[in-house]
Design goal:
Length: about 220
């Protein structure tokens, strides 16, 4: 019994080290849990549906996930908590902000490592792209658009490796943000075929926290 307990403890510690290594290397900057999500602040959000997503069955089923809504409504919190769950399940997940992903691939064009970098992102068992629409996408005139780069990546994963995205802009604005309306439409067409869609229609939690801090400091907002 003692030997079995020692071996069991050793296996658990080894697994925990693997999980921690995945969390450290997946790209997450902060660790957010679904348990810490303020459900009362977003009463229109279907909690049971989100908690069902946390089983990660959609990853096993190779379904994509698209979460939309205004800034501050909890999209990134949900996606980051799912990323953490994926690490705990030892899924090979990579998390990135859209602007960082595009910058990385543009850097590959500059130093002739584009194909290698693209394959590195494409090989992820689950790829998480946060904040489409947030941050300035930079490119030179002789470079392909961000839409071209994102299309190539998502097309290489289409129907065999799931991808999750969040966006704080309307889907109709993706063409303007990514620099090519036709390719942006092609991206959205592929996502429509394979994705679970969640739209969060609610207030900004960041704005609420700012109001609370202002109130704590005796600052009154006359606009409300």
């Amino acid at each position: 019994m003692l030997l079995e307990r020692v071996l069991g403890d050793g296996a658990r510690q080894l697994r925990q080290r693997r999980v921690e290594r995945r969390i450290d290397t997946c790209g997450l900057r902060v660790r957010k849990s679904l348990e810490a999500f303020d459900w009362a602040f977003q009463p229109s959000l279907n909690r049971a549906f989100i908690e069902n997503l946390a089983t990660l069955a959609f990853i096993d089923n190779r379904e994509d996930l698209l979460i939309t809504g205004k800034s501050g409504t909890g999209k990134s919190h949900i996606l980051q908590s799912l990323t953490l769950r994926a690490c705990e399940r030892e899924i090979r997940v990579r998390y990135t902000r859209c602007v960082d992903l595009i910058d990385d691939l543009y850097a590959g064009l500059a130093d002739q490592t584009y194909d290698t970098r693209l394959q590195k992102w494409a090989r992820a068992e689950w790829l998480v792209i946060d904040d489409v629409g947030l941050g300035q996408l930079r490119r030179r005139d002789d470079e392909p658009t961000a839409a071209h780069i994102l299309f190539n990546l998502l097309d290489s994963r289409h129907e065999h490796a799931p991808t999750a995205l969040t966006s704080n802009i309307k889907l109709s604005q993706w063409g303007k943000y990514l620099g090519d309306a036709t390719l942006a439409a092609a991206i959205l067409d592929r996502l429509a075929m394979t994705s679970i869609r969640v739209d969060i229609d609610g207030p900004s939690y960041r704005d609420e926290l700012a109001r609370r801090r202002a109130k704590d400091h005796g600052i009154v907002d006359d606009s409300t």
